[in-house]
Design goal:
- Helices cover 47% and strands 15% of the residues.
- The protein has 81 residues and is α+β, with helices and mostly antiparallel strands.
- The longest helix is centred in the N-terminal third of the chain and has 19 residues.
- The N and C termini lie far apart (36 Å).
């Protein structure tokens, strides 16, 4: 039962979030061979000024060994954003 959480900055439309959810669900179903009813997707928005403390440090920086796709930025880049 995969549950996927997408964390992003605000500003994407409901249509974009719905399309992303559909694409993720479809890919999970095809790649992992799950039924649609087994997949859930949540979207959480974080303000840019909160990203480093609420997302980057606890979920990215502290879990690099678990990431299958690492971001192309680091904490220094966030300080300049």
């Amino acid at each position: 039962m995969p549950h996927i959480v997408v964390k992003l900055w605000p500003g994407k439309s409901e249509e974009q979030k719905a399309r992303l959810t559909e694409a993720i669900t479809k890919d999970v179903m095809e790649t992992l061979n799950y039924a649609e009813k087994s997949v859930s997707v949540a979207i959480e928005e974080f303000q840019p000024q909160d990203w480093a403390e609420k997302v980057y440090k606890p979920e990215i920086q502290n879990n690099l060994d678990k990431l299958y796709k690492k971001p192309g930025y680091d904490l220094k880049d966030l300080d300049r954003a």
